[in-house]
Amino acid sequence: MLLKLEDEVKLKIIDEALTHIKKVETDPDVVIANVDNYDAWYSFNDRVDFNVHESNFGEQYNDEPFEWHCSAYGVELNEDETFRINTDITNFLFTYKEGKVTFHNE
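Structure (tokenized):
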């Protein structure tokens, strides 16, 4: 199911994700609080989380450049009123490779 997002929200998530990617590509050993450099989950607000990850989770093969992906996910309350990410409700925002962003206009 497609997670519907306003353009302003998409742009803010994309900006945060690209900032993360640039930090890691500039310094692979950078320490970013509470996230994995190559599989980072961020809370955007109480209804949307997003993930930015590298295809091979930071492992390079044959000097292939990193390929990053960013998707947003719906967050909902469970029966016990704890929040959970519903990975069935998603919006694939972009792919990034070698400085080029390919947007997925869902």
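DSSP finds one helix and five strands in the chain. The longest strand covers residues 83-97.
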